[in-house]
Amino acid sequence: MRDAVIVEAVRTPVGRRKGGLAEVHPVDLSATVLNAILDRAGVEAGLVDDVVWGCVGQVGEQAGNIARNAVLAANWPESVPGTTIERQCGSSQQALHFAAAGVISGQYDIAVAGGVESMTRIPMGSARRVGLGDANSDAIKKRYDGIEFNQIRGAESLATKYELSRTWLDEYALRSHQRAVRALDEGRFTGEIFPVAVPDGTKLESDEGIRRTSTLEKLGQLDPIFPEDGRITAGNASQISDGAAALLVMSGERSRQLGLTPIARVHTATVVGDDPVTMLAGPIPATARVLDRAGLTLDDIGAFEVNEAFASVVGAWLRATGASEDRVNPLGGAIALGHPLGGSGARLATTLVHHMRAEGIRYGLQTMCEGGGMANATIFENLADR
Questions:
Q1: Fewest 10 Å CB contacts: which of 8, 143, 155, 288?
Q2: Rounded to an integer, what distance in angstroms lies between the CA atom of residue 344 and that of residue 351?
């Protein structure tokens, strides 16, 4: 039976909005990680059967099939195709699922999965602002009694349902920064990050969103986004960011032919739909489904990456699953590192598989909430010594 293994995973540093990556075109940012991943693996670009790329804001500089444009910008052979997909925040995690499925089915021998988002250059929600009508048709409005789908409302509803106080949310956000600071100081991100050359001649080498001086007192001074008595603030939500990440996926047989040592294999992958009004609770059923399909339990998983779109998403997931927080986002998450929408799924996967290899963890699980009430979940298996 064919399998899908990851032989290399690389990401850019995550840049703050209007920060170090603001002047880098998202096509060129994508091309940077495409070339980095092949250079590190020692694989010729002409061997790649397809590039499957996630991107949410597919307008302007990110329009026109950014996957194909990135292949051309990377100066890869014109024979290498690319396709761009959009599953909201989980776009590049879904790209990995599609790439792995293509490899397992025999349609590909080698594929690159990943994604990008330049939220500085293409602001969040840009595709809805082009004046071509409402994405929610009358049928959708009728089905949900005219309720507007809103991620802040969803995050607040999770905090209410799972009794997550403002203090808990801020404490969790602070721990995200503290874990990221520790990981940075210990050099834990060095193997996964490829520095990006920027137009002024310098290089961005590390994530810009990590705050060493954050305190619970400072976080407590931030106003709620809404309503006035709400619990969700800019401090306990993910950061608006720029970044890209990529994973090199191939069959185990092909990796052996090329003399490559895989980092991990894609053990099990799934996606679920959930309530689009609450919107952000999908990682809970997605986790249950992927564990069931894998024949594993929560205790079998040595590390989890649960995207920190909001602290309440992780808090709800923790309380619903009963997982131990010390295994969740051990190197910090999107609250500290940032959330470049279409690139975040690949960023989480890159961080997770490198962490699994470094710590000798056999199984890791990744899950992300997505707009419209969906969630992807992936289980990776460390292949070292197996």
A1: 143
A2: 10
Catalytic residue among 89, 177, 267, 355: 89
Q: In degrees rounded to 5, what are phi and psi of residue 27?
A: -65, -45
Q: Tell which residue, 87, 284, 359, has the closest CA to residue 96.
A: 87
Helix (H) or strand (E) holding 119: none
Q: Which helix (H) or strand (E) holds 97?
A: helix 91-105
Residue 378 near residue 269 (C-beta atoms within 8 A): yes
Phi, psi of 193 (to 5 degrees): -95, 135
Does 55 qualify as catalytic in the annotation?
A: no
Report the DSSP pairing between strands 50-54 and 15-16. Answer: unpaired
Integer angstrom CA distances of residue 254 from 138, 349, 359: 50, 21, 26
The encoded tokens of residue 44 equal 């010729």
* Contact (Cβ atoms closer than 8 angstroms) between residue 340 and residue 122: no
DSSP 8-state class, residue 240 = P
Alpha carbon dihedral 184, 311, 345, 179, in 10-degree steps, equals 10
Helix (H, G, I), strand (E, B) or coil at 85: strand
Burial degree of 65 (CB within 10 A; 0-12, 13-18, 19+): middle
Instruction: Give the contacts of 187 (CB within 8 A, at least 6 positions apart).
Output: none
CA 7 – CA 42 distance, rounded (Å): 11
Residues 195 and 177: their CA atoms lie apart, in Å, by 21
Closest CA to 382 of 270, 299, 302, 294: 302
User: Helix 283-294 crosses helix 311-321 at what angle (to 10 degrees)?
Assistant: 50
Residues 306 and 56: beta-carbon distance below 8 Å? no
- Among 177, 267, 339, 354, the active-site one is 339
CA Rg value for the chain: 20
